[in-house]
Amino acid sequence: MWIEREMSNELRALARTFPVVALVGPRQAGKTSILEREFPEYHYASLDAAMNAEAAETRPQEFLDRFPPPVVLDEVQYAPSFFRYIKTVVDSRKGENGLFIITGSQNFMLMENLSESLAGRVAVVPFLGLSGKEWNLTGEVSRHFQWQDFLFNGYFPALWANLEARPSRQRWYQGYMSTYLERDVRNLLNVGNLRDFERFIRACAVRCGQILNLSELGRDVGISTPTSKQWLSVLQASNQIHLLEPYHRSMGKRLSKSPKLYFTDTGLAAYLMGFDSASSLWSSKEAGALWENHVINQWLRYRDWREPSLGLWHWRDQGGNEVDLVLEKDRRLIAIECKLKERPGKKDTKGITRLRAFYGQDEVSAGYLACPVDMAFDLEPAITVVSGWETWSLPS
């Protein structure tokens, strides 16, 4: 069963206007599947295969004779010197767009080579797993499952594409973690003990939605703060986590300066936390943090897929008042609090009220409580309760 992706039209448009399009995201997010579906006329080569990577690195013209443009190149970071050859081809065919569509799951190596060799020639598109809208529009899925199942099982398309033969969630994530540790972690970093790194990523999972404290994180795992910082960068580079930076406008000394930690897939976070069933997760104290993680993830997708200039932040003052998500649009702020409640009350608006008092009513154009509700309603003037299941329309 094909699950329609929101980026389909945008990818085709980008291929008409850029010579190179780069789709960047974690393994198994569906990058290859969407490209094979939207660009069936393209040649295809995976550089995950050592033979192809070696040919692209050492015999680039021979490789392109086998896979001439227009071509989709998967996991292109495994042939770093090939980027210069792509540039040569692009420059020799000025005016032609859609020559190369490349994918990568490791940001460090990919982005470094893109910036060095293809600046001004490439459109870079972050690509994560399914959004709430994509999953919800798949009628067969939403008839049999609820949003709690989606957040528990996660956003990877492979877990939803075949309802008659769905893979075991536990086995799937066990295999995913093994592949991730062996392929991405070993390639990105010389980690001496993968078991320690796995303990590190599990420690990160239990901190979903929390202010990042690197020294505490390293102490809990038994590694130094510099090592903790280095390993965290590996999780970022492989698109497993997102750090939501704090918002400040010239008054930074009065505000928190540490980012909040989120996983790009709630199913992986729940697996790493050790939850074996959706019911155990949603009755736990971690449920609220995972709901917040989901809401943040929906807006990450909205920004990356629809409005790249949209600013995403969190806000917290020295008194502990906070807003989970602050959007900055046209230099005005939109405040979003994530609450796992069907009937939120006035006390749940405290952070938004404080943000408005801090920056002024005119600076905060709208306030929302993102809750597990079906219908939006006004809780009080200028604060609306909305479904956090997927993104909603923003004020113009």
Oligomer: single chain
- The total of helices stands at 17
Largest sheet: 6 strands, mixed
Strand order of the largest sheet: 8-9-10-11-13-12
Using the coordinates shown, work out and report the CATH topology of the largest domain. Arc Repressor Mutant, subunit A
- Count up the domains: 3
What structural class results from the helix and strand content? alpha/beta
Low-pLDDT stretches: none
Shape: globular
Which key phrases capture this entry?
Rossmann fold; Arc Repressor Mutant, subunit A; Trna Endonuclease, Chain: A, domain 1; six-stranded mixed beta sheet; 17 helices
Helix/strand layout:
Elements: H1 8-17, E1 20-24, H2 31-38, E2 43-46, H3 50-58, H4 60-66, E3 71-74, H5 82-92, E4 100-104, H6 107-117, E5 122-126, H7 132-136, H8 139-144, H9 147-153, H10 169-188, H11 194-205, H12 214-221, H13 225-237, E6 241-244, E7 260-263, H14 266-273, H15 278-282, H16 287-305, E8 311-316, E9 322-329, E10 332-338, H17 350-359, E11 364-371, E12 377-380, E13 383-387
Parallel strand pairs: 1-4, 1-5, 2-3, 3-4, 10-11, 11-13
Antiparallel strand pairs: 6-7, 8-9, 9-10, 12-13
Helix pairs in contact: 3-4, 9-14, 11-12, 11-14, 12-13
Quick take:
This protein has 17 helices and 13 strands.
Task: Describe the structure in your own words.
The strands form 3 sheets. The chain has a 6-stranded mixed sheet with strand order 8-9-10-11-13-12, with helices on both faces. It folds into 3 domains: 8-126, Rossmann fold; 132-292, Winged helix-like DNA-binding domain superfamily/Winged helix DNA-binding domain (Arc Repressor Mutant, subunit A, Orthogonal Bundle); 302-387, Trna Endonuclease, Chain: A, domain 1, CATH 3.40.1350. It is an alpha/beta fold and 396 residues long. The mean pLDDT is 91. Helix content is 43%, strand content 17%. The chain starts with 7 loop residues before the first helix and ends in a 9-residue tail after the last strand. The radius of gyration is 22 Å and the shape is globular.
